[in-house]
Specification:
The chain is mainly alpha-helical and 252 residues long. The chain has 2 domains: 7-106, DNA polymerase, domain 1 (Orthogonal Bundle); 135-251, Outer Surface Protein A, domain 3. Helices cover 52% and strands 11% of the residues. The chain has helices spanning 7-20, 33-54, 56-61, 64-77, 88-98, 110-125, 135-139, 197-209, 214-225, 229-246, and strands spanning 145-148, 152-157, 178-184, 190-195, 212-213, 249-251. A 3-stranded antiparallel β-sheet has the order 5-1-6. A hairpin with a 5-residue loop joins strand 3 (178-184) and strand 4 (190-195). The longest helix is centred in the N-terminal third of the chain and has 22 residues, at 33-54. It is elongated and about 75 Å long. It starts with 6 loop residues before the first helix and ends with a strand. Residues 10-96 form the Putative DNA-binding domain. Residues 149-243 form the NGO1945-like C-terminal domain. InterPro entries: DUF2063, DUF2063_N_sf, NGO1945-like_C.
Amino acid sequence: MAEKVPPFQQIQFAFAAYIRDPDHNPPPRGPAPERMKVYRELFFNNIENFLATGFPVTKSILNQNDWFALVQGFYATHRSNTPFFAEIGEQFLDYLQNEREPDSGDPPFLLELAHYEWAELALVVAEGEVPDPSANLITDPLGQTIHLSEVAWPLAYRFPVHRIGPDQQPSEPPEQATCLVVYRDMSDTVKFLEISPVTYRLLQILEDEGSVAAAECLKRLATEIGYSSQGLAEHGAEILRALAERGVIGAS
């Protein structure tokens, strides 16, 4: 026989259900309606303010009703699997990607834009260190064994998410994907750098394989894209220097 839920827990469940979704759940018996409204607004506004801070561009490209509907859907239906406030952004992204039914009025880049904004937010608190500066990597990049920074994420999107805003909202993706690396630098500032598909592939190799000899990595890339090994090495040396100066890669 199922154990009966104690009366105080019944009140708690009713209270929480109403706070999450007052349009589909009756208020608990006892508290005055005006008091429940205060609780509802306090809880909801707290979540909305956090998401507005973490996803400011996403909010800016939606009208107010659509934004609040997006937040309300997350607030009412998503069951978070973390107690940490700093991880609400990841939970919101999970809701958008895996739970929410797309709306016909959604911008076609909505999920990619939200992912990009989440990445910037997540790197602020991500564990990991920026590689120590290496003089050898600047003077002789091809002679080093290189690795990707623990706080650098190569990302590829169909849309140019780093340029999207209220006045720039593409309806169709361009022919070439947008490749970025989002990273945290030595001053703990999160930045992004637009990179070529070849540089993105280079960072993918480092992300997948760890430390790799720079010269061998460039030879492998040249084979993949059907380019001269010597030509790519000359161009690649400058790319490695630029990435090292930003703290995106380090020398092992």
